[in-house]
Amino acid sequence: MNTVDYDKALYYTHRSQWDNLLILMVRTKDDFLSKKIEQFLHAYNFEHDYKEVEKQLYSLLRYIDHAIEPEELEYAHSVFE
Prior knowledge:
Largest sheet: none
Order of helices and strands: HHHH
Number of helices: 4
Number of strands: 0
Low-confidence stretches: none
Radius of gyration: 14 Å
Structural class: mainly alpha
């Protein structure tokens, strides 16, 4: 699995680079990541309730964490074997 898209998503989110996050949403091969980015950007731009924006942001971050975790475990197993 290539983690570059997840790293970019974290970086763009941390730096509030919404244009780059939108481009990543279109270009990524991970449909679920694309959907999470879409939901966050929609909430950020159109939602008046900050709790909903926060909910979508945390949903995006949880997915990225979940998607990266298996690769970290795979790396750890290969190092210690």
